[in-house]
């Protein structure tokens, strides 16, 4: 059932659509081709308050809930998926700092959370799906923790100034700490050269004897796995929104082209083969939307939402790749041109079959939940 | 006493705005026995009454004062109000220029009468001046009258009527003197005639116009290449002025520049009214748009329904 | 500095249509938006407030639903809002509207500067600002592109198309603002939430010191006696070939025939 937005939410969404249409969407191809946000665009996103819209009022945020926040991400994604992914990476990190952060940590970082972007570092170069295999360590020294290690594939890595990082505090013990770029021993590494979501910086950080107090520990020692899972769930809802926005974008392009393009004297939209593709894109868009909105509604209502969020991303990513592929086919040769958005839309969607856990891993998680019932 | 139609002469630093001459010609055509009177407030050394005389008004009310060389809206409006109260004209017409549209409503408010803005036509029915004005961005026309109060006031859009000189007439020149207002008033500290940077499209023989449907960096680069080969200038519709490549200087339309080239190629321009207003004087118009229903097509001699980017690509290839 | 910005609700789109039978204007959905030029006036006010301190109040006249655009302006960061809503105001032309708005500015009290957009995009008159200035016995600067405050002096650069004029005003004054003056900010999420906590003060005709003879249709000298669609002049619209390459070939031939290449 469609959510009834409050008047405040309606105004937020209308502003988001206007902002996206005027400021972001016209730059979609430029962002893909340049592999970066044009000067001033990200600054304008910050100045318009998008980074703190879900932060509570006491920290200077606007206090909007998870459902409308996801809808904001979807609308931004309809204009440019990279910018939506940047918001996703920030929001999921802020959510964990809200949920698990000490009052001192929140007092330090939240007043500026509307001006600077946050990131969450899980993955390491050695890879492997077992979190216990990570090499980043946090070791007690007096009352402090000393962090050493290296995190890669961080959404907003390099752009973000504040990072949650997963570290081992014991042989079988994971914990999450918050570090920032101003700490001694913190350094940035290289930026990835990905095929899609090319505007979203994805980068690397190094920690070389970065020293933090207990205030910078998220939750408890040993709670790292749970916090990582929570970040994953929040990310999956927002990625479902990104994927839905990508499909909205592809569907809008494909339907308008199908109405204009003629085969002989007939618009191709009247051909059954084209109609079937349009219908498939629309069904994929709608099912993904329902999945992520359901997960967001459960989050807002305080119900468990892990499995639903995982479904939104696992289902939505493959569905979006297929939908964009269908849309490309509707466009024929133009669809294959990099002067049209379809090529990057496929690559954008494809990123989310991998990011935040591969779809294979997610299917395993969904199956495990079902088997446990 | 014969009733009068007043035309308030719009004085620029070095000339009379042509809209004043256009209004004289039009007023003479519809006067039906009323006197056509130009009100000219100028500095003594300006002597614009000679230029105005050539268009054959019946009379010029001439107020000369050094203060009028750089006068505030308040000074101009107060003087006109005083004169209107004294002479009781039937109608007062202004050019719908920024200056005319600033002074006229002050006079209107002081005289507590009606004023119609930006008229495209006006005519008398008996004593009633019927004023025809566009609304909703020229999508609607309204006929407006001011039945009970006088004078009947209107500002009239420049370049709507032709100005015609009248040989061998000598208007009566009536000097008037108006005490300058002592009310609150602005101090004009500088006036600079604007040098238009829009010479590119305003005077171009050939124009390539880009709209939302041809707004990618690739489209823009190709269009520029084609334009340079054709010796054409590149203009844009309003949405594209948001792009870093363009400003309002390249904008075609009501809020931008009116163009009159021999050849206009519209690429991905849908044809919002405000754009069309700025291009109706173009001679040969060819338009490319994906939407067969796009309003631009009705204003086009030749049409291509399809993707502007593809058309640009094909044209660029052919140019090479 | 106490600034009042007068804003107007205009239709979402100017693409109005006529009823094919009655030839009446079909205004379509009731939804409206802030007149775009008024957003430039709000932005100018917010920048002045940020530069020299003070407060920004919004003022609009219209049915109670006009509160929505006042809410939008509050979400841009204005401090307070007043809505003049009364049947007595219905049918007002620019003369009557300017009078009522001026009386409201008097009632708000101690207003240093009244700002408006250069004109509304529906009726395109641009007359209300100067009419207010006369009613308030204040100087004006229309078509402003720059506003600089210095004590009770305001320096305004006016873009008069053929002329750039700089005028110094002693406050209080009325200024209308061009789009070139600034780029209006978007509503921010925080200001959106705050805008719903602010009260929109609604004043009826009885809440203001008004001369009944100057209100509504009675107080409006002008009459709109007819509204119609302008005649559309159209051109030949000959279609070119449906494939781009063939169409381009045709275009080049046509250009040659016209001596353009």
UniProtKB/TrEMBL annotation, chain A:
SUPFAM superfamilies reported for this sequence:
Acyl-CoA dehydrogenase C-terminal domain-like, Acyl-CoA dehydrogenase NM domain-like
Residues covered by the Acyl-CoA dehydrogenase/oxidase C-terminal domain: 237-369
Q: What is its EC number?
A: 1.-.-.-
Record bears the keyword Manganese:
no
Q: Does the keyword Flavoprotein apply?
A: yes
Using the UniProt record, name the top-level EC class of this enzyme in a single word.
Answer: oxidoreductase
A Pfam cross-reference name = Acyl-CoA_dh_1
The cofactors named for this UniProt entry are: FAD
UniProt GO MF annotations? oxidoreductase activity
Span-the-membrane segments of this chain are none
Record key words, sorted: FAD, Flavoprotein, Oxidoreductase
Q: Which residues form the Acyl-CoA dehydrogenase/oxidase N-terminal domain?
A: 6-112
Q: Which Gene3D superfamilies match?
A: Acyl-CoA dehydrogenase/oxidase, N-terminal domain (1.10.540.10), Butyryl-CoA Dehydrogenase, subunit A, domain 2 (2.40.110.10), Butyryl-CoA Dehydrogenase, subunit A, domain 3 (1.20.140.10)
Which InterPro entries does the entry mention? Acyl-CoA_Oxase/DH_mid-dom, Acyl-CoA_Oxase/DH_mid-dom_sf, AcylCo_DH-like_C, AcylCo_DH/oxidase_C, AcylCoA_DH/ox_N, AcylCoA_DH/ox_N_sf, AcylCoA_DH/oxidase_NM_dom_sf
Q: Which residues form the Acyl-CoA oxidase/dehydrogenase middle domain?
A: 119-210
Question: Member of which family?
Answer: Belongs to the acyl-CoA dehydrogenase family.
Q: Which PANTHER family match?
A: ACYL-COA DEHYDROGENASE, ISOVALERYL-COA DEHYDROGENASE, MITOCHONDRIAL-RELATED
* Descriptive protein name: Acyl-CoA dehydrogenase family protein
Q: Species name for this entry?
A: Lacticaseibacillus suilingensis
From TrEMBL, chain B:
- Short name of one Pfam family for this protein? ETF_alpha
Question: Sorted alphabetically, which InterPro entries does this protein's record hold?
Answer: DHS-like_NAD/FAD-binding_dom, ETF_a/b_N, ETF_a/FixB, ETF_alpha_N, ETF_asu_C, Rossmann-like_a/b/a_fold
Electron transfer flavoprotein alpha/beta-subunit N-terminal domain location is: 5-192
Family classification:
Belongs to the ETF alpha-subunit/FixB family.
Kindly give the PANTHER family that the UniProt entry links to this protein.
ELECTRON TRANSFER FLAVOPROTEIN ALPHA (PTHR43153), ELECTRON TRANSFER FLAVOPROTEIN SUBUNIT ALPHA, MITOCHONDRIAL (PTHR43153:SF1)
Name of the protein this chain belongs to: Electron transfer flavoprotein subunit alpha/FixB family protein
Q: Give the source species.
A: Lacticaseibacillus suilingensis
Automatic annotation (TrEMBL), chain C:
Listed name of the protein: Electron transfer flavoprotein small subunit
What InterPro entries would the database entry show?
Answer: ETF_a/b_N (IPR014730), ETF_b (IPR012255), ETF_beta_N (IPR033948), Rossmann-like_a/b/a_fold (IPR014729)
Q: Which superkingdom, per the lineage?
A: Bacteria
Q: Which Gene3D superfamilies match?
A: HUPs
Q: Write one Pfam family the protein is assigned to.
A: ETF
Span of domain Electron transfer flavoprotein alpha/beta-subunit N-terminal: 22-212
The root-end lineage is: Bacteria, Bacillati, Bacillota, Bacilli, Lactobacillales
